[in-house]
Structure formats: C-alpha cells, structure tokens
Design goal:
Length: about 270
C-alpha cells in the first residue's frame, strides 16, 4: 500500500515549450504548486498558511509538446517543518520524468508518511563574494504573478531565474545566435532552491549569477535573488545542466573556445 495520491493531470501546451524544445522548468513548478494545494486540502490543512522554504528537483526524462503527464504526491516528513514529495510521470509511457521534494512551513502535517526512494540532496559548495558575480536580471513583481496567498508564485521565481540564465550563458558565448545556429540548448537535470522570504507585488528584484562548476558537457550555475531596496536575499538557485545537442537529444562537449571564456568566470 502506498501513501501517494494523484494530485494533477495535464498536458504540455505549445506555449509551455522553451528554446530547448521541451517543457519549460517554470511550468513544472506551476503544476507542482497546484499539486501541493490539492494535497494539503486533502490533508485537511489550510494551504494559504503554507510557505515553501526549499525545493529539490531532479529532471530525469524530457516532456515535449503535447505529452500528457500526471503527478503523485505524498508526505515524507511530518511536523511543523514538513516535506512533501512529488513524482511526475509521463501518463502515456508510465516513465518517471521528474521528482521534487518540497520543504514547507506555516502548517503542521500529521498524516501517514511514505519512505522516500528517490534522489537525495547532494551538498554543493555555495559561491562566496569572491566569485565572479554578474548582474543578470532586474525586474518588478506584478500582481498577476501571485499565488493564492497573494505572494509571488513558484513559477514567478523560476521564470526570472531562466532570464538570468540567458545572461550568464551569453557572458561566455552561449548566446542566442550560437544556440540557434549550432542547434544547442541548456538542459537542466537538477535544481536546488531556497526561499528566504515571501515577495509581494511591486517588489523590485535583482539577480546576480556566477558559474559554480564546469565539466566536460555539464555546468552548474548559481543565482541569488535580492530585494533591490532592502538588499535582503529573497531566494537562491543552484542549477546543474548540460550542453545539449538538440538533434541527437544528448549531451555534447562544450567547445574549447567557450570553455576558456567560461573558466574566466569561475
């Protein structure tokens, strides 16, 4: 017997596909947010009182235009600092595509738990002030980006991080022109997210980004989101991805010229 319940069913719409030709990461979080709401309602607690403090996501298999999927959710840690696990499956093939562990506070869960059988969090170094930080986003939160509690939604955070990605990648040559002509994309396989505070509409947000690790075909980017007025840290994201050949749908080596430019930003 399992304590997982189905919390979402959907399909990938054309406008939810990014330049890497698969489901945009921000829309995963839109669906996980909805799955959490339904799960907490099922658990008999008020979802409006819940706040996400951390999210660990592993992207295992692609979803592409018109694919159908479903999400199953379970509690894997009870108490005042509970943890919910989400598993997203391709509904046609049954393949596990994505997992997300979500730490929440503001409510207390006292329901049957499920043993977590997926990926565990790997400790990764946090870049210091000595890193080569680049300004990668300046923005203001809008009312239509809020969730049901009136704060910036999870996809609202991720869309901004995606913009920051474009700037840090372009800084060492992974420009839109290069990506388009070479048929290359950045395919993410891990997110480590932290949320320090909620964000209301009208908040001015800045993001600074750096390169935290450089492999043969892989790269880890680190982003920190800051309140432009108070200078408080709002959120951070450690993102691992690969230089992806869009035609073969396989990782490919980062060209030497770009690698040398990237090393200067490490």
């Amino acid at each position: 017997m399992t304590n997982y319940i189905e919390t979402y069913r959907g399909d990938v719409s054309p406008w939810e596909v990014d330049s890497t030709e698969h489901f945009t990461v921000a829309y995963y979080y839109e669906k996980f947010e909805a799955a959490t709401w339904r799960f907490l309602k099922h658990a008999g607690v008020n979802p409006n009182a819940c706040r996400t403090t951390e999210a660990l996501t592993h992207y295992k298999a692609e979803l592409r235009n018109r694919d159908i999927y479903r999400i199953e959710s379970a509690c894997i840690q009870n108490g005042d600092h509970s943890r919910i696990a989400h598993k997203l499956f391709n509904a046609e093939s049954g393949e596990l595509c994505t997992t997300m562990q979500q730490n929440i506070t503001g409510i207390s869960l006292d329901i049957p738990t499920e043993r977590w059988d997926g990926d565990i969090k790997e400790d990764r170094a946090i870049p210091t002030s000595k890193a080569k930080w680049l300004p990668t986003s300046q923005d203001v939160t809008r009312p239509e980006e809020t969730d049901w509690s009136g704060n910036l939604s999870l996809p609202g955070f991720i869309h901004r991080y995606s913009t920051a990605n474009s700037f840090i990648l372009a800084a060492f040559g992974l420009t839109s022109e290069y990506l388009t002509k070479s048929r290359i994309g950045l395919s993410t396989f891990e997110f480590q997210l932290k949320f320090e505070k909620t964000v209301s509409p009208g908040t001015m947000i800045d993001i600074e980004s750096c390169i935290a690790h450089l492999g043969g075909s892989s790269i880890r980017l680190f982003h920190k989101m800051i309140d432009a007025e108070t200078k408080e840290e709002i959120s951070s994201l450690s993102q691992f991805g690969v230089h992806l050949d869009l035609d073969l749908r396989r990782p490919s080596k980062i060209p030497d010229e770009l690698r040398e430019r990237a090393k200067a930003l490490l």
